[in-house]
Design a protein that fits this description.
heterodimer, A: 66% helix, B: alpha/beta, Alpha-Beta Plaits, 6-stranded mixed β-sheet, 4-stranded antiparallel β-sheet, 11 helices, 14 strands, globular
Chain lengths: 334, 295
């Protein structure tokens, strides 16, 4: 590989992207508009349903049987008590009830928690009260990491996959093949060009959204940047597999949608998957976007550090290595 | 003279179709070699095997006596039949991009002047006319100062003026003693530019030599053309001497033009709109294959 050839392709690709003004505007304006739209639509956080986390739901059902039979309350089975207490602090759950130890937690400032407490004590008395405090996490705080992740996903998949397929279709790749440029030089230039552009635009979207509506960020910016970098690389690599041999933009478009839509729905961009069937939650773990969003939410909402999110980073790194190897192996100029 | 390129029994098959079927030829250094044939004859497939774009099914390709390898790309200049450049870059940027791929490059100013790119150097490559675009693609093919240049149907789709301008550029390259391999289905282009030609049809070479020698070896006669209406009152002449064309003209094949014209005068055939022409490569192709070159 020669640096000169790599930089030449990198520069040309950057110029091509930055001079395409309509695509450029869309990359910045679209995510900001989505966040603002959702922030407006959900600004009252007007969710009528009560959410109760239940630990050891099977332990002694009779103890809380009457309370657990209440209608219009969503009971969600949880495993990790400490993590869930944190969610009660941030109003993500209205109540946490541990059937094994006969305790319950509510936030002292939560009106829903107060209502549920009255209900529990009248229907299934005998549980001891634990009070927690903390500011509510607004829907928009929860949504921002999802939108940033979704933006990274679309820019990575379509920005690389679609462009390579277009180059192949109109003969650009064939012309490059006739030069001493190697496939590795070409592909790495495409990956790095897209990577830094996505990170730049994600930062701009972050700043723009924060300026207009403001949101919660408790963790480290460096950790968040690391998550986004690894996440972008994993998605770009996935896109390289799709674009490795295809010469039809229409088929590529269909395949890219086939990959991106399940991630949109299952990776928790818009709504939490807690309470979803186990199979759905397991399937979501196979998707890179799930790990990007979960790690980003942990950093932004809970203030998690590198250690707490390290498993997400290892998975994203592994996915990048596997996808990149397959994509490079399958790649053909024509 | 030792050939710069030597190909032996080259074949390329796609499933049931044999696109190239046992093609052999050598190209001496410094000449313009033309591959002539109709669309689908196998010209582009042959050239793309030489360029290293397509892997041959069988046969051998030697460059300067050695089997062709990846380093060939440093010494070859290639202009494909259909090539798009990256979008949103100017002509100058496209030239710089390709210049960065090669270890040895021709000075940019020289290239700009040679291919007459000055007036649209800072224009987006998307906004070029057909002729300008072909000149840019030629400049890119020349950027590494190649020893051999492949031009695949370089003037297809150009208007006559742009085509003649392009020929002038090719003449300039020939003057530098570069070796050229040109594919075309325009016989006048082959006649104008090529020192030697090979005519292809159905994946095979059916004739090879200099254009003049090929015409000389296949045709001893000259064509005298007259409007068919001139023979209206001379049915004997019309039936025995001439072949009629759909465009209302009749061709007389003559071994001795003076004698034939005297015969026509003696027979009282009017000579209005008489034309005398030599046989062309198009005639040769028609004779060899039974179908038209642009079919």
């Amino acid at each position: 590989m020669t640096l000169k050839r790599f930089l030449a392709v990198l520069g040309a690709r950057n110029r091509e992207f930055l001079r395409d003004k309509s695509a450029l505007a869309w990359n910045i304006i679209f995510p900001v508009l989505i966040v603002m739209g959702f922030a407006f639509a959900f600004h009252t956080d007007d969710n009528e349903l009560f959410k109760v986390a239940v630990k050891e739901i099977q332990a002694q059902p009779a103890t809380a049987e009457a309370f657990l039979a209440t209608e219009h309350v969503s009971f969600i089975n949880i495993e990790n008590l400490d993590q869930t207490i944190g969610k009660v602090e941030r109003h993500q759950y209205d109540m946490l009830i541990d059937i094994g130890t006969k305790q319950y937690w509510i936030n002292e400032t939560s009106a829903k928690g107060y209502m549920l407490e009255r209900l529990l004590n009248s229907l299934s008395p005998g549980f001891s009260k634990q009070l927690v405090s903390g500011e509510a996490v607004r829907y928009v705080d929860w949504l921002i990491p999802g939108i940033l992740g979704m933006n990274v996903m679309f820019s990575s998949l379509f920005g690389i996959g679609y462009v390579i397929v277009r180059y192949r279709k109109n003969g650009v790749l064939k012309r490059l093949k006739a030069t001493p440029l190697s496939a590795f030089e070409f592909l790495s230039a495409q990956v790095f060009s897209r990577l830094w552009l996505i990170l730049l635009f994600t930062i701009l979207v972050y700043i723009g959204t924060d300026f207009f509506i403001g949101f919660r960020m408790l963790g480290s910016y460096a950790t968040l940047l690391l998550i986004l970098t690894l996440g972008t690389l994993s998605l770009i690599s996935l896109s390289l597999i799709i674009a490795a041999r295809m010469a039809s933009e229409e088929t590529a478009n269909g395949l890219l949608n086939l990959v991106s839509w399940p991630m949109m729905l299952l990776s928790g961009v818009w709504f939490s998957l807690e309470g979803s069937p186990e199979l759905v939650r397991q399937a979501a773990q196979l998707l890179p976007l799930t790990h990007i969003i979960d790690a980003a939410r942990a950093v932004m909402i809970d203030g998690s550090g590198l250690v707490e999110i390290s498993h997400h980073l290892f998975i994203l790194g592994g996915m990048t290595a596997v996808f990149m190897t397959i994509g490079a192996y399958l790649f053909r100029w024509e | 003279m030792n050939p710069i390129i030597d190909i032996e029994n080259l074949c390329k098959s796609y499933k049931e179709v044999k696109a190239v079927n046992g093609v052999s030829f050598s190209i001496p250094k410094g000449i313009c070699f033309g591959l002539l044939g109709p669309n689908g004859a196998g010209k582009t497939t042959t050239v793309e095997m030489l360029e290293g774009i397509i892997e041959p099914s069988s046969g051998s390709i030697h460059y300067r006596g050695k089997p062709i390898g990846p380093e060939f790309r440093n010494t070859a200049g290639i202009m494909f039949q259909n090539t798009a450049l990256q979008e949103h870059i100017t002509v100058r940027e496209a030239l710089r991009l390709f210049a960065d791929f090669y270890p040895r490059v021709r000075p940019m100013e020289q290239l700009i002047e040679q291919c007459a790119l000055g007036e649209f150097l800072d224009r987006d490559t998307k906004r070029l006319s057909g002729g300008q675009r072909q000149r840019v693609l030629l400049a890119i093919a020349l950027i590494n100062d190649p020893e051999i240049i492949f031009l695949d149907e370089p003037t297809t789709g150009l208007d006559p003026q742009a085509r003649r301008n392009f020929w002038q550029l090719v003449h300039k390259i020939k003057a530098e003693r570069k070796t050229l391999l040109l594919t075309t289905h325009y016989m006048e282009e082959a006649y104008e530019l090529c020192d030697e030609i090979a005519i292809m049809d159905n994946g095979r070479i059916i004739a090879q030599g200099t254009p003049r020698d090929l015409l000389k070896s296949h045709f001893q006669n000259t064509v005298i053309t007259l409007p068919s209406t001139n023979f209206r009152n001379h049915p004997a002449c019309r039936d025995q001497l001439v072949s009629h064309q759909a465009n209302g003209y009749a061709d007389i094949l003559s071994d001795d033009v003076d004698k034939t014209i005297h015969l026509l005068i003696d027979a009282g055939v009017p000579l209005t709109q008489l034309q005398v022409r030599e046989r062309t490569l198009e005639d040769l192709f028609l004779q060899l294959t039974g179908h038209n070159l642009r079919a």
